[in-house]
Amino acid sequence: MKIGLLTYFGDLNCGTNMQALSTFLALKKAYPHDVVEIIPFHGFRARMLPYKTFSPVNLWNDMKRFMKYHDFKRKQLHVAGDIVIKDVDKALQYIASRNYDVIYVGADTLLELDKLAHGYDGISAYWLKDIKAKKVLIAASSKNVAFEKLSPKQKADLKIAANQFSYIGVRDRATVALFEHLINDHDKIEYIPDPTFTYDIDYSYVDNYLKKKGVTLPSKSVFIQFYGNDYWLNDVAKDLKQKGYTLVTNRGVSWSDIVLIDMSPLEQVGLYRYMDFVITHRFHDGVFSLKNHTPVLIYIKSAKVMMTGGESKHISLLKDFGLYPQAFLGACDSKEGLKNVWESYRATKEVFDDNKVESILQNNRNKYLEYLNKTLM
Question: Which of 218, 199, 202 is nearest to 264 (CA)?
């Protein structure tokens, strides 16, 4: 058989690439005697921009990061010749022409509709409407798609596409809520953990990286993932430094103590092991922090963009580990503003139980693999 994996990959986002690798590896193990490949298709052009900096050293490290991600796509994901097809009908024709017996769709926010052409009254090619193959959703997410806000045509198209999937495995509560509008048999909807919970971290990558860089990470280190205009972090950084913390980032800013721009995905996922805690707006930073038994505080840039009905993939993750609301800092554009970082960290530490975290990690891994095994031809 020929098995296709339709997923996001190839941009400069560590989590996006690691979820693609984790799903790919799990599928290859599940189908050892079949052809398994990542479908070399993008519905939009991947964001590939260097960080804004005036430092020649940082620019050089940014170029090294570009090359590492390019090598990751070629060597780890085994993808070459991938193409961008923005026209939905042409994209579906391309996918159909590859003649897959089974197509897995996931993980990440593949089911979102944000990236459609302006004014296009339809759904994306990632929904695989009318594609002739067995189709499986595996830990997919619709991000911020709200059924009530869709056009009548989009609602009709989504209902057709949703009911064509043989299995529906989604990774957050917001996506569960969407599918409850789309299909009649709600028992068919399964809440599936992210594929990265199945990935076994190889720490040799980060250890060799740090050794080559000549970097030693103090025990009181904090990794901070942020947007370039997150100026609220200036005060947070000042407070943490006064408390004796070393601030580690992967983009250059004046308050960062250690800047690690040129990490590959395989290097970055092991870095969290050496942090006292992590501050981030990225879902997979949260996953890999927890896989390393490191407390994580999560914020989101905009409630309008990231949340549906008071839920989000970030909140779902924290709820699964019993860390909500303590570890959720809020949305930058909320009326209340973000919560105090230090108070949130202390509250998170009080409920952070290593044994509980490990148990949930193992349960998530097992639940994902059990679902995958159920979908096999």
Answer: 202
54 has pLDDT over 70: no
Whether the model clears a pTM of 0.85, i.e. scores above it, the answer is: yes
pLDDT tens-digit map of 10-32? 999 999 999 999 999 999 999 99
Full set of structural domains in the chain with CATH = 2-197+363-374 (3.40.50), 204-361 (3.40.50.2000)
The Cβ of residue 330 has, within 10 Å, a number of other Cβ atoms equal to: 16
- Say how many residues make up the chain: 377
H helix runs in the chain, sequence order = 14-30, 56-71, 88-97, 152-162, 173-182, 204-213, 233-242, 265-271, 283-291, 303-306, 313-320, 341-351, 354-374
150 vs 296: CA distance, rounded Å: 34
- Distance (Å, rounded) from C-alpha 56 to C-alpha 202? 31
Return the half-sphere exposure (C-beta side, CA atoms, 13 A cut-off) of residue 104: 33
Q: Give residue-wise pLDDT tens across range 148-174.
A: 999 999 999 999 999 999 999 999 888
Distances 203 to 28, 264, 274, 332, 342 between C-alpha atoms, Å: 22, 13, 11, 33, 29
